[in-house]
User: Fold Alpha/beta fold hydrolase from Paenibacillus protaetiae.
Amino acid sequence: MPQRPRIRTVEPLTFVLVHGSWADVTFWDGVAAGLRKLGHHVYVPEYPGHGAMTDKKVTHAQISRAIADDMIHNNVHQAVLVGHSFGGSVIQKTAELVPDRIKRLVFLDAFVLKDGESVSDEFPPDVRSMFEALRKSSADDTIMLPYPVFRETFVNLAGQDLVNRLYSRISPEPAAPLFEKLDLKTYYSLTIPKSYIYLIEDNVFPQGSNEFGWHPHMSSRLGLFRLLKGFGDHMTTAATEPMKLAYLIYSAGRD
Assistant:
């Protein structure tokens, strides 16, 4: 008698998805839909300086507070809090504000800052200098990601039409939160379980560098953590293969 195909059992979870710089909540559209299709509860909060909130004069504290307030407003508990890129620093600070509401932290090619660091401290010197110059030349203390940098590092797997479409959606990033030094002593006292997802074609940082990069440079700061790897780059994969990314996020977040 032929065997029935095995059905994958998916444990229903609650996910809170936090996007990174030069993005807004639409970054997660396909991934959120995929997770909901799998039976999960998904929240995708926006934060100041992004999306419809166009005032670029924001602080890192306002951003993390907005995520925490959204979780409180929606009565979210036992959340798998996912941060992408700059969102890694956001979920570090959010965890300090509402640790009792978080089941696990998941960092997706995301910054894991040391106590007293800023996100910009982790940029290679040439990138930091470029961003400082762009910040200085802006009229509203923002940084607009140059097209060649976006094309070669953020969406290096994308075809030209998709690159153009994705670039048309981004807006200047508030600079101040990227350069703020963060007190993370409380974060490093927490015992919340952690996972790291590394997309191996992500070219935002130099590949193979011991000084910069996502994994193992950032991930190793998590202490005991669950590591998952997948094929993808920094921003293309969420748009072109959202279900694959949804499965990775579920695998990172499940018990």
User: Anything to note?
Assistant: The CA atoms of residues 174 and 193 lie 30 Å apart. The chain has a mean pLDDT of 95. Residues 14-253 form a domain with the Rossmann fold fold (CATH 3.40.50.1820).
